[in-house]
Amino acid sequence: MSFQAPLFLLMLLLVPVAAAAYARVERSRRRAAEAFATPATMPSVAPVRPGWRRHAPMALYALALAVLAIALARPEATVAVPDERASVVLATDESGSMQATDIEPSRLQATREAGLEFLDAVPDEVKVGAVVFNHAVRRIETPSTDRDGARAALERMYSSGGTAAGEALATSAHLLEGEAAPGGRRMRPPAAIVLLSDGATTHGPDPLPIVREAARQGVRVYTVALGTPAGTIDVPAPSGGTVRRPVPPDTQTLERVAEISGGRAFRAEDRLELSTVYEELGSQVATRREKREITAGFASAAALLLAAGGLLSLRWFGRLP
């Protein structure tokens, strides 16, 4: 939290001064009471004493003074707000390894459901596109505030073939040309690629040189490594039948891609974790950090504290202090 007028915070010094003055007045009252009646006769003179209730309204007033001083300093909080200028491309792997069932019901189904949830959660003002790939790019949807195209691309995913992450990144970056302004990691307006893949690149160009160029154009890449090291699929054997083949995610390459672009790398080893990752990505790639003044909140709190102190005093003592 920061303040537009921090000098008003000096008013906080009035709180201990007021507390000291109140304590001095209370001691004077106590001495006057003791002069009026001896300790032995005090129970009969004042059989009911307010105890802590005597001080509660004043404590609320002191707290209200402190909150009011903060309000006058015009506090600001940094919050995430939807950025209507943002453009995001979901680059989603539908290679044969997405048949693996180490993520229930399968990697492909979990990815489809999480992607659709992402589209529903991203603010309406944000433009979202889609690139679906296996050993080549299969479906392309230009970033748009209309989610129907991206939604249809995800719903039509079918697991087959190899993995061409480099080609998918190049296609996604091309879709974002004109959306991102040069300037690297401080792009304006923001443009990002969310790359989900579950295996090493087997076809097409190396993704690292491509992501370096995308980073120079102000595009960040957020990667999601899907699956567990124990993931397997059954593939046809040359002699007939099938053979089980391990399909662990290529976490190292995906982490490197995110690092180069200034994005962030995630790992998802179950359906719930993937949904959580996509929820977090929605808040990162489609929002911007902005300072908002929160003076009204503090002023309202001060008014409530003052009202509470007055009401308690009227209820307990029939008067305001």
Q: Can you offer a commentary on this structure?
A:
The chain is of the alpha/beta class and 321 residues long. The protein folds into 2 domains: 2-78 and 292-317, no CATH class; 84-285, von Willebrand factor, type A domain (Rossmann fold, 3-Layer(aba) Sandwich). It is built from 10 helices and 11 strands. Strand 4 (127-133) and strand 5 (137-144) form a beta hairpin. Helix 1 packs antiparallel against helix 3, helix 6 runs parallel beside helix 7 (207-216) and helix 7 (207-216) packs parallel to helix 8. The radius of gyration is 32 Å and the shape is elongated.
Fold topology:
Elements: E1 2-3, H1 14-36, H2 42-45, H3 56-72, E2 75-82, E3 87-93, H4 107-121, E4 127-133, E5 137-144, H5 148-155, H6 165-175, E6 191-197, H7 207-216, E7 219-226, E8 232-236, E9 242-246, H8 251-261, E10 265-268, H9 271-285, E11 287-293, H10 295-317
Parallel strand pairs: 3-4, 3-6, 6-7, 7-10
Antiparallel strand pairs: 1-2, 2-11, 4-5, 8-9
Helix pairs in contact: 1-3, 3-10, 4-5, 4-9, 6-7, 7-8
CATH architecture of the largest domain: 3-Layer(aba) Sandwich
How many structural units, i.e. domains? 2
Mean pLDDT: 83
Coarse structural class: alpha/beta
Strand content: 15-25%
Outline the low-pLDDT stretches: 180-188
Shape: elongated
Instruction: Give the SSE order as H and E letters.
Output: EHHHEEHEEHHEHEEEHEHEH
Q: How many distinct beta strands? A: 11
CATH topology name of the largest domain, in short, is Rossmann fold
End-to-end CA span: 34 Å
Give the radius of gyration. 32 Å
Q: Which CATH class of the largest domain is shown?
A: Alpha Beta
CATH homologous superfamily descriptor of the largest domain:
von Willebrand factor, type A domain
What profile does the largest beta sheet have?
Answer: 6 strands, mixed
Strand order of the largest sheet: 5-4-3-6-7-10
